[in-house]
Each structure stands twice: as structure tokens, then as C-alpha cells.
């Protein structure tokens, strides 16, 4: 699997939120305990300076880390879970593109109907809803860490229209993009 296009800050936000939708896409390794976990692990959160991220379990283990006994990231998954993880990684990597269910199903080699049903069974979301969540997460990160306008962010994260961007953003964050930017104004802005 190729490295994800998530920044350290974005991955950090996912582990602080215990976001299970990013499980098996990357692993959090804690330097002081020499343990690696899933992003959704409920164990006490480490200090930010003690965290390293790895895209795969073998990479974390090669660096000298062992699996967390609480979230057990090394336990083998069912074959369908591997397929769902593949779809999630595809969506994270291609969120900027105009994607339809048929494109995603062709990537994994199964029918669109079966993919939709399987994905929902494993994640409680459809691939479309998961893609929207990724786009909103990216938009929220850009709103709080850059000077890009809302319009620029809308198109940067893959929305095809501003009305869809505002509607979906409000659904996930319970506020408009402008309100979100104001609420997170105290975070440092990247150039």
C-alpha cells in the first residue's frame, strides 16, 4: 500500500478523536512504550512528541515496536475486511477526484452493488458517505491551518459545487465552514 497523503497533524487529530474509520490505514507508535496501536485505540493518549506513524504493521515491528494488547492491531482480519481497508485507502488517496461507486468498485474488482453492501456492513457507512467524511476532515484541517478561501478549499478537497460543500460540511461539523474557521482561529496558520 502506498503511503497515505495525510500529514502528521491530520493523523494526530484522528488518534485524538479515536477515529475508527482510519483503522488499518496507518498505525500510531509510541516511542516511550515501544507499542503501536490503531487510530481508534482507547488507551491513554501519548504526548505528541513521543508519537511516530507507520503505514503498515511490518514497518512498525521492524522499527522495534510491539502490538498494543488493548486494541490488538496485529490480529488478522477477515478477507472482506481487507477489501474494505483497500477501498478506504483508495478513497483517502483519491478524495480530490470526481468518484462514483462504479469507479471504486472497478478498483477492487467487485460489483458496485456488492461493494456498497459490504462496505456498509463493515463501516456502517456507504463509500459515498465515507468519501464525504474524508473531504470534510480535509476541509476542516485546511480551514484551521491555511489562509485559503472557502471556495478554494471546496474545490481543493474534491467537492464539485459549493452548495454540496456547505451542506455536507454542516452535516458533519454542525456549523458552516466560516463558523468552523472562527472557532479554530487560535491555531497556528501555515504559510
From TrEMBL:
UniProt entry tagged with the keyword Transcription regulation: yes
Cross-referenced SMART domains: HTH_ARAC
Lineage top rank: taxon: Bacteria
Transferase listed as a keyword: yes
One Pfam family it belongs to: HTH_18
Domain HTH araC/xylS-type: 85-183
Family matches, as InterPro entries: Ada-like_dom_sf, Ada_DNA_repair_Zn-bd, Homeodomain-like_sf, HTH_AraC, Me-P-triester_DNA_alkyl-Trfase
Assigned keywords, A-Z: Activator, DNA-binding, Methyltransferase, Transcription, Transcription regulation, Transferase
Swiss-Prot/TrEMBL cofactor(s): Zn(2+)
Protein name as it appears in the record: Helix-turn-helix domain-containing protein
Amino acid at each position: 500500500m502506498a503511503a497515505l497523503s495525510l500529514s502528521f497533524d491530520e493523523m494526530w487529530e484522528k488518534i485524538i478523536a479515536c477515529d475508527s474509520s482510519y483503522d488499518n490505514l496507518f498505525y500510531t507508535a509510541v516511542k516511550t512504550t515501544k507499542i503501536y496501536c490503531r487510530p481508534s485505540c482507547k488507551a491513554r493518549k501519548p504526548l505528541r512528541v513521543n508519537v511516530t506513524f507507520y503505514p503498515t504493521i511490518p514497518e512498525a515491528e521492524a522499527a522495534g515496536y510491539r502490538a498494543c494488547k488493548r486494541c490488538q492491531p496485529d490480529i488478522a482480519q477477515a478477507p472482506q475486511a481487507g477489501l474494505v481497508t483497500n477501498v478506504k485507502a483508495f478513497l483517502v488517496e483519491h478524495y480530490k477526484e470526481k468518484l462514483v461507486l462504479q469507479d471504486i468498485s472497478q478498483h477492487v474488482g467487485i460489483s458496485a452493488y456488492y461493494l456498497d453492501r459490504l462496505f456498509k456492513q463493515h463501516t456502517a457507512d456507504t463509500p459515498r458517505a465515507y468519501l464525504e467524511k474524508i473531504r470534510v476532515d480535509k476541509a476542516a484541517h485546511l480551514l484551521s491551518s491555511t489562509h485559503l478561501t472557502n471556495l478554494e478549499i471546496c474545490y481543493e478537497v474534491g467537492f464539485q459545487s459549493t452548495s454540496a460543500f456547505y451542506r455536507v460540511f454542516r452535516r458533519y461539523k454542525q456549523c458552516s465552514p466560516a463558523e468552523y474557521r472562527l472557532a479554530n482561529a487560535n491555531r497556528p496558520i501555515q504559510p
